[in-house]
Amino acid sequence: MTEIYTSLSMENIFESSSELKQDLRKIYYDLLKSKKGVTYEMVFESYISFSLKKKMEMSGSFNQKEYESLLLEKHKDFEKLGYAMDSSVYNTMKKIIPSFNKYLDQLGYPIVATNVKGISFTLVSEYSDPLQQEEKEAEYKKNVKLFSDKIQHRRPVLVKYKPFNKEEQTIIFHPHVLRNYMGKWYVLGISESEGHSPKKFDMAINRIITVSSLSQSVKYIEPLPNQYDYLRDIIGVYKENKNKTKIILKAIDENTHGKLVANPLHSSQEIVADDDFGYIELNVIPNGELRAIILSYGTKLKVLEPQSFKDEIKREIMEMLKSYEI
Predict the structure, then answer these.
(1) What pLDDT is attached to residue 273?
(2) Which pLDDT tens digit goes with each residue over 204-236?
(3) In the chain, which residue ranges form alpha helices assigned H by DSSP?
(4) Contact 39, 119 (CB under 8 A)
(5) Domain parsing of the chain, residue ranges
């Protein structure tokens, strides 16, 4: 994956087969990201432009007009001679493209090949840059492990973090707890920043830009006794300033009730039998994550008690209705 973006050597660049492979991989991948039906001819023509520009830049005499004039001549030669003008590039390309297609397929990004007027390739992916996505996911997993190690060894870190809809910030962070919610990892702890007192701080790990270790001279701030006991009583990560309470929900149909039984909303969940198919009881601290889950069921799930939480859901629904008013 990272081999594609390896910086180019300044020595014997056009004689090096390894550099040629790297160039062709990058050119082919860039075409796959931007076009459907990428052909060998398209890769070869792009390589002509790429190699000419690089050669002129390396000589220190790049001139845009001269470049365009030379490029036009090369493309005319290509139209006449085709791949014969550089069989080494063509032969390398015939090896690189199939192996790179196989690599992408192994990562879960299949290549669809069609053969109408010559073979062409199309990348199938929900991401505009799947290899960049792979790198992000690898970095994400590395950060989860790093925080796990720092918590175990009680060490602070320097973090550059970009909260959603807020400015980027750099803080000294003292990690205490890792929390997974709906497949995403969060780290909870204490933050320190210039001009501010230490405060409780929670971060989504996928919004961390960089994280690095600090010297042993930076003292770790320990969590307070029972500081994170509330995590047992909430859904998700974020606690609101509310007390733990019993919440009673009623599914409108048997299918919805079955989903809630099969996938409990919280470890405190209990089913209370009635003449129908039962109520759902939770003993939790209400928060935004719980409200979001209830609202996601639409008309299929209703809050019965307590009245205060029922009113919260009503207000959310009324605000939603207002947003659709013409």
Answers:
(1) 79
(2) 999 999 999 999 999 999 999 999 999 999 999
(3) 17-34, 40-59, 64-81, 87-106, 130-153, 254-262, 288-296, 307-323
(4) yes
(5) 2-123, 131-227, 245-323
